[in-house]
Amino acid sequence: MDELKIFSIKKGIQEDNVKIANITRSELKEKEVFMINVMSSPGSGKTSTLVRTIEKLKGEMGIGVIEADVDSDVDARSVQNAGAKAVQMHTGGLCHLDATMAKAGIDALEVDGLDLVFLENIGNLICTAGYDTGAMKDIAILSVPEGDDKPLKYPMMFERVDALIINKIDVMPYFDFNMTVLEERVRKLNKDIKIFPLSAKTGEGMDAWIDWIKTEMKGGKSNESNA
Amino acid sequence: MHELGIVYEVIKIVDQFVVENQLLKVEKIVLEIGELSQAIPRFIEECFPAAVADTPYETTALEIVSVPAVAVCKSCHNEYGLIEHRKICPSCLSEDFTLISGREFSIKEIAAY
Ligand SMILES: Nc1nc2c(ncn2[C@@H]2O[C@H](COP(=O)(O)OP(=O)(O)O)[C@@H](O)[C@H]2O)c(=O)[nH]1
Ligand SMILES: [Mg+2]
Ligand SMILES: [Zn+2]
To answer: What spacing in Å lies between the alpha carbon of A49 and ligand 1's midpoint?
Structure first.
């Protein structure tokens, strides 16, 4: 038998994922489809925020949603009723989407002719943060009831995203959530992040978020290969 | 579960290497995991046996080299442990730093026949 040898590999475990994500990004760019990866804990308001967003933007553009969060099709039906094309993925038990799964969602949605696609990622603030899906922009949603100390507990997510929505500001009076402290904590991790406090329930604060999407779609820079 | 997916990813990469290099048997896989990467070494160790059950890697050992998060201060060039000093330079109290290690998340090497 041959001798036992040591083989140096030095291969990043996520190298392949980043490669696939970069291919997805260039394919989407070619088709002029702008994809936003939406991440949050379960129940922070991903679907509600998307419904509001779709209602505001559907007159101007074709919108699609890839629903990956829950296995039932309730979320997909909500965004469909709001006016988007939607597809439900079955991700039972998974904790994040990687670039291969995101690609499967994009193919299932058939994005040709769409302008804007949202990927509602699996409700998880830790695992999703580590994976490039091929989206042009990554955003996170934090809701007021979750508390202003989340950036201290889950820094990876806040370090990585381009924008942060603070949802459910309509219930601010009932929680001791300090927006100034929250912003300070987030900026310490990510000084260029955009922060949009809003309420998907009342619609307050939606305009700044909508404007940001439109600006980014018009040629805001994309996030080439964020690992 | 997250870590199980990671282990499958590792096995896939190793398997490719084994085929390409026509190796017979992998005795050990060595991973390098930075303190700031999102993988938790203990969880990876725990789900490794489940991931390799009934595969050619059933008897392969797993070793994890943990890499500390080390930063260099941008103001005074002092090198310090990022986590133990809570991202603040212990010599000048600046919070501006460049990370020099801690995000590693790779397969370092394998021992094989
Ligand atoms: N008060 C309040 N409730 C909200 C708001 N946005 C979402 N919710 C509620 O929060 C719950 C979870 O919302 P959903 O959009 O399904 O969250 P997801 O799991 O992140 O998609 C639902 O009961 C929503 O009605 C908001 O701005 N204010
Ligand atoms: Mg949802
Ligand atoms: Zn210093």
So the answer is: 8
